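STRUCTURE:
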């Protein structure tokens, strides 16, 4: 009997540990962001009767009959027969997107000012996570390579940028490392209110990590969790900045405010602090 009780207690302990270790906060579908502030500036968000985001800042989000985004501020979108974004148009730029057999973005073909052209190619790991983008410059002599690394929860923890002129030997330009909490990100919440759930996508909204756009177009990343710290270092020593985020959360594990400290180890006179807030509603 004693042995049986010990086995049960051991199983219970393992279960509790495995459930609590790195678990994300539960996501509540009927919560949405309705306002936020950056410093002294305040912004509202609007939604239609179907619950889709239609306006943020002073930008409109417009959908087609299938509830696919066709306009997001200055961005215009077209779709292929599978319902995937096939073309993105914005000022002086048009990008055509080709997908691989798994339905993942394979290449960007970008035209600037009707004549200049560049190309990006994408690579993925065995979990279909974007790991590498190679951008071929407009003059065909400079290539940029972006390499991404992830944690166990699929958050991007490292963003490395390299450059080459021969397409073979790369030199590091800069690297940024990130850490995250296990709470809900309001920016990902906004993304889901547009009918999209992929953390890497073609839709820039309130706040995001831009991936690419050194020689071609970019994709945009919204982690499901909130950044706790980031450290950006340029290999030539010209730039080194550490960002630390101190959040206050609500009962749904969403942040309602944050204090961000920007530290420049080599230039302490540049150190500064900024503040953000978020307001939600249940619907």
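SEQUENCE:
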């Amino acid at each position: 009997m004693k042995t049986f009780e010990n086995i049960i207690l051991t199983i219970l302990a393992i279960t509790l540990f495995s459930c609590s270790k790195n678990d994300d906060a539960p996501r509540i579908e009927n919560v949405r962001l309705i306002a936020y502030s950056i410093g002294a500036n305040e912004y509202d968000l609007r939604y239609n009767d179907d619950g889709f985001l239609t306006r943020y800042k002073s930008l409109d989000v417009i959908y087609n009959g299938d509830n696919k985004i066709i306009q997001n501020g200055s961005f215009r979108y077209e779709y292929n027969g599978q319902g995937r974004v096939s073309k993105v148009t914005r000022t002086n730029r048009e990008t055509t997107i080709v997908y691989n057999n798994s339905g993942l973005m394979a290449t960007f073909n970008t035209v600037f000012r009707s004549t200049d052209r560049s190309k990006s190619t994408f690579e993925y790991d065995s979990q279909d996570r974007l790991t590498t983008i190679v951008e071929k410059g407009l003059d065909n002599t400079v290539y940029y390579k972006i390499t991404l690394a992830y944690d166990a929860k699929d958050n991007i923890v490292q963003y490395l940028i390299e450059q080459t002129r021969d397409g073979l030997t790369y030199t590091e330009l800069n690297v940024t490392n990130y850490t995250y909490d296990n709470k809900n990100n309001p920016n990902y919440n906004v993304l889901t209110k547009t009918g999209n759930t992929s953390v890497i996508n073609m839709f820039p909204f309130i706040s995001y990590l831009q991936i690419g756009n050194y020689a071609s177009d970019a994709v945009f990343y919204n982690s499901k969790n909130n950044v706790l710290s980031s450290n950006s270092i340029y290999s030539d020593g010209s730039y080194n900045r550490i960002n630390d985020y101190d959040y206050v959360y609500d009962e749904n594990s969403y942040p309602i405010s944050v204090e961000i400290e920007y530290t420049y180890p080599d230039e302490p006179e540049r150190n500064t602090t900024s503040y953000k807030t978020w307001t939600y509603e249940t619907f």
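REMARK: Helices lie at 2-20, 186-192.
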